[in-house]
């Protein structure tokens, strides 16, 4: 009777905890969907064609597209031909942001893509596999009357991928090619109010530079930056969740250190998962409001990579430590086959990120995809990481299948037990299955919301209520994994409750001082729990 009462209390507590976490999860989605604006904003920019007739085109002078000191402009290239202005004397100027606006550190980053308006002309056709050479410069200032300060200057090459939907005849002259967008620039901070981009297309017939690229009419840029309102909501969530996870981590590790035994592998992995979650949560982004930290995007990628590598490793160890017939348990070396692909895949993605965003710290115009060698190298890293991920999920699915098969086999021994003891073990098995289902639900929700955010227009409108789907995805999934880690540490913390010698040797039929744990792994003060000992005995028989 005592065992049944205890099991009912534990199940009721589990339901209460699950209900609270579900409510918090809904709140996390609603914060993004109803409070936060869209995560990013795309702003189109049309470049202005400026005339630069200075000798040697000294870069100390910047050409402004508008304002009191704006450059001498060209309407089109026909005017340049009539005025005998050479292509090397033309500069495409773009001011960021648009007139009467200012950039803000709350925007966090700037990503630019380029679109070229190329017209077909019989005597200046676009060659196959043509490459365009860009002489680009980026500058900033914080006052409209200050001098421009250079941030970066580079000469970049981009491959043109264009199609022409009409026959290439005289009648088709003037029609535009349909060209793919080109990666142009990415910068990891928006520390200044105003930015200026000057783009030159140097022509050198002898070296074949910018020859056979068609007749370029205009250069358009699309700037993408994070919305300031979303940034504030995101920072607020991080600031709230950081102490929440820290508190549960301190409580969890204190419960472990009070035990007379050393921490077991699963307990260590859960704690490491909490550390990696805290590493993501710590809102160091607050400093980016006052400092020009262009490495924040790379740092964010590294933090996420550490967490997801730790999460994938936890799932493998979580399943392995519940395989009751496994001989090698409680040792990390026993999981090298499963954890190895995670390490290799994570390393490949890290190298890829360093080759892309690492180089962009010095040259924001760089892109690894613009050269054949860079593209092949990037694809090699991604393919290796993909293969490792596939191997990992094959291992994981096999281990999950084995765990559920073993548990089902052990359930055949339960009818021979007393009612109280049977209820106790059924509760343990139920809780393990419960955590597995929660894990699958979290993974499924991550995939589903990612797909929905990609295929929808970004928001849903119900009457007067507008729900930002993309914002809800970011805040909801971020909150979900925090709650997942919180639940793991709460439910798998060692218990220090004793239920007395009479109860232990009576209805429960277990050793004195045995704890009612939520895990079938080694969580008792003096050794394995009864479920594990029972399983091991049957396996040996």
TrEMBL record:
<dbReference type="GO" id="GO:0006886">
    <property type="term" value="P:intracellular protein transport"/>
</dbReference>
<dbReference type="InterPro" id="IPR053936">
    <property type="entry name" value="WLS_GOLD"/>
</dbReference>
<feature type="domain" description="Wntless-like transmembrane">
    <location>
        <begin position="227"/>
        <end position="496"/>
    </location>
</feature>
<keyword id="KW-0879">Wnt signaling pathway</keyword>
<keyword id="KW-0472">Membrane</keyword>
<dbReference type="Pfam" id="PF21883">
    <property type="entry name" value="WLS_GOLD"/>
</dbReference>
<protein>
    <submittedName>
        <fullName>WLS protein</fullName>
    </submittedName>
</protein>
<feature type="transmembrane region" description="Helical">
    <location>
        <begin position="265"/>
        <end position="284"/>
    </location>
</feature>
<keyword id="KW-1133">Transmembrane helix</keyword>
<dbReference type="GO" id="GO:0000139">
    <property type="term" value="C:Golgi membrane"/>
</dbReference>
<dbReference type="GO" id="GO:0061355">
    <property type="term" value="P:Wnt protein secretion"/>
</dbReference>
<dbReference type="GO" id="GO:0016055">
    <property type="term" value="P:Wnt signaling pathway"/>
</dbReference>
<feature type="domain" description="Wntless GOLD">
    <location>
        <begin position="48"/>
        <end position="226"/>
    </location>
</feature>
<keyword id="KW-0217">Developmental protein</keyword>
<dbReference type="GO" id="GO:0017147">
    <property type="term" value="F:Wnt-protein binding"/>
</dbReference>
<feature type="transmembrane region" description="Helical">
    <location>
        <begin position="233"/>
        <end position="253"/>
    </location>
</feature>
<keyword id="KW-0333">Golgi apparatus</keyword>
<dbReference type="InterPro" id="IPR047843">
    <property type="entry name" value="WLS-like_TM"/>
</dbReference>
<feature type="transmembrane region" description="Helical">
    <location>
        <begin position="428"/>
        <end position="452"/>
    </location>
</feature>
<keyword id="KW-0812">Transmembrane</keyword>
<feature type="transmembrane region" description="Helical">
    <location>
        <begin position="296"/>
        <end position="318"/>
    </location>
</feature>
<feature type="transmembrane region" description="Helical">
    <location>
        <begin position="472"/>
        <end position="493"/>
    </location>
</feature>
<feature type="transmembrane region" description="Helical">
    <location>
        <begin position="339"/>
        <end position="359"/>
    </location>
</feature>
<dbReference type="InterPro" id="IPR009551">
    <property type="entry name" value="Wntless"/>
</dbReference>
<feature type="transmembrane region" description="Helical">
    <location>
        <begin position="379"/>
        <end position="407"/>
    </location>
</feature>
<comment type="similarity">
    <text>Belongs to the wntless family.</text>
</comment>
<dbReference type="Pfam" id="PF06664">
    <property type="entry name" value="WLS-like_TM"/>
</dbReference>
């Amino acid at each position: 009777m005592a065992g049944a009462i205890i099991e009912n209390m534990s199940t009721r507590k589990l339901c209460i905890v699950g209900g609270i976490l579900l409510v918090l999860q809904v709140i996390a989605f609603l914060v993004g969907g109803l409070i936060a604006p869209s995560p990013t904003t795309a702003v189109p920019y049309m470049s202005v064609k400026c005339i630069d007739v200075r000798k040697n085109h000294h870069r100390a002078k910047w050409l402004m597209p508008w304002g009191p000191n704006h450059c001498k402009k060209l309407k089109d290239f026909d005017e340049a031909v009539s005025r005998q202005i050479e292509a090397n004397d033309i500069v495409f100027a773009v001011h960021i942001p648009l007139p009467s606006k200012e950039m803000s550190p709350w925007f966090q980053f700037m990503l630019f893509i380029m679109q070229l308006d190329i017209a077909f002309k019989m005597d200046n056709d676009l060659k196959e596999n043509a490459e365009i050479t860009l002489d680009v410069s980026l500058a900033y200032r914080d006052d409209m009357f200050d001098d421009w300060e250079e941030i970066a200057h580079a000469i970049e090459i981009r491959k043109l991928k264009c199609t022409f939907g009409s026959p290439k005849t005289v009648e088709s002259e003037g029609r535009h090619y349909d060209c793919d967008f080109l990666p142009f620039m990415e910068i990891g901070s928006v520390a200044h109010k105003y930015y200026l981009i000057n783009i030159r297309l140097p022509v050198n017939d002898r070296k074949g530079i910018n020859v056979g690229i068609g007749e370029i009419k205009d250069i358009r840029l699309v700037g993408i930056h994070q919305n300031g309102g979303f940034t504030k909501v995101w920072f607020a969530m991080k600031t709230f969740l950081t102490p929440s996870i820290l508190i549960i981590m301190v409580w969890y590790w204190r419960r472990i250190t009070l035990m007379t035994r050393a921490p077991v592998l699963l307990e260590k992995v859960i704690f490491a998962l909490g550390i990696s979650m805290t590493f993501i949560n710590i809102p160091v982004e607050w400093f980016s409001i006052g400092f020009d930290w262009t490495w924040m995007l790379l740092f964010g990628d590294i933090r996420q990579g550490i967490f997801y590598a730790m999460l994938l490793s936890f799932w493998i160890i979580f399943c392995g430590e519940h395989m009751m017939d496994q001989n090698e348990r409680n040792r990390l070396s026993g999981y090298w086959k499963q954890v190895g692909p995670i390490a290799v895949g994570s390393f490949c993605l890290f190298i890829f990120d360093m080759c892309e965003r690492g180089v962009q710290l010095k040259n924001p115009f760089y892109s690894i995809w613009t050269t054949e060698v860079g593209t092949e190298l990037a694809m090699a890293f991604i393919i290796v990481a993909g293969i490792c991920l596939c191997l990992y999920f094959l291992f994981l699915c096999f281990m999950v299948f084995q765990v559920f098969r073993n548990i089902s086999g052990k359930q055949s021994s339960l009818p021979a037990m007393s009612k109280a003891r049977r209820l106790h073990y059924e509760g343990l098995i139920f809780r393990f299955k419960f955590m597995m289902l929660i894990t699958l639900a979290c993974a499924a929700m991550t995939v589903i919301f990612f797909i929905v955010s990609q295929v929808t227009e970004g928001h849903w409108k119900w009457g007067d209520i507008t729900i930002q789907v993309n914002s809800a995805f970011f805040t909801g999934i971020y909150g979900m994994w925090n709650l997942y880690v919180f639940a793991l540490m709460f439910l798998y913390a060692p218990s220090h409750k004793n239920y007395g010698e009479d109860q232990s040797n009576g209805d429960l039929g277990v050793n004195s001082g045995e704890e009612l744990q939520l895990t079938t792994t080694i969580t008792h003060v003096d050794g394995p729990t009864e479920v594990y000992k029972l399983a091991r005995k049957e396996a040996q028989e």
